[in-house]
Hints:
Layout: H1 2-18, E1 29-32, H2 39-45, H3 47-57, E2 61-64, H4 69-78, E3 83-85, H5 88-97, E4 102-108, E5 116-124, E6 139-142, H6 148-162, E7 174-177, H7 181-190, E8 195-200, H8 214-220, E9 229-234, E10 238-239, E11 242-246, H9 251-262, H10 264-267, H11 269-275, E12 283-285, H12 292-302
Parallel strand pairs: 1-2, 1-3, 6-7, 6-8
Antiparallel strand pairs: 3-11, 4-11, 4-12, 5-8, 5-9, 5-10
Helix pairs in contact: 3-9, 4-5, 5-12
Amino acid sequence: MKKLLAATVTVLATTALTAPAFADGITEFRIGILGGENAQDRLNSHECLKTHTEDALGVPVKLFAPADYNGVIQGLLGGTIDMAWLGASGYAKTYLEDPEAVTPVLVKINLDGSYGYHSIGFARADSGITSLEDMKGQIFGFGDPNSTSGYLIPSIEIPGEINATMDSGDYFGEVKFTGGHEQTIVAVNNGDVNGGVTWADGQGNWEDGFNSGALRKAVDAGLIDMNDLVEIWRSKPIPEGPVVLRNSLPEDVRVKMTALIDGMYETDRDCTYNISAGESLGFDPITHDAYLSIIEARRAKSN
């Protein structure tokens, strides 16, 4: 009898070790990564987060890097993505389509303790373009229609500064979407467009691509030399986008993931650098109220 009991315990223990972990009410966890750089680089930079998440939840983790912002947004809305770091405009779209889909939990903190950033207009230094005035009749590049800094904010602020619309042929010779932040940076650097907009915290040194943002990522990847580029415009401060979690996730999963990323700066600064696009102080709690102005701007833009 003792041998039978021992054998039964052994089988149960082995089963517990090899069976899928259902303790948290999920069998896998799916993280969406917004555009901004090519898909493989996005996956590589988030591999550390994948590993930490698997350790925290005890289930397999999948990373998704859709071709555009809308792929992540629709994944959150449709339940095929559980967590993502959205831009403010992306969160606004998600909220406007389904207010019950996700909740913002964390926001990236800059080295000075702020959580704002800027849309940065830029051109090649050898182009002779140093301002929006010099861009008249030139080709202007937006990133993604669901990007805050790559479309929403500059499409609202720039018309007031140039006293014209953003329609092709009105002030700019042509206005077109490049597909994302990295694509805009490369397009300007290669001369495919004369100027464009991307995101950066606006802190630190220009030659480094600032402390964090798409320019910093492009410098780190060896895609550009910032000395070849020049800033031609800067938006007012924009609230940094939130890390969001699907509301339908079990509460303990939401708590564990919030704690994991909130504590990442103390536990793994290299991973923090990777997932926050450069130097930062990690992530702090944020709420829906921080994005009310962006939600209203997005709502007005769609009307």
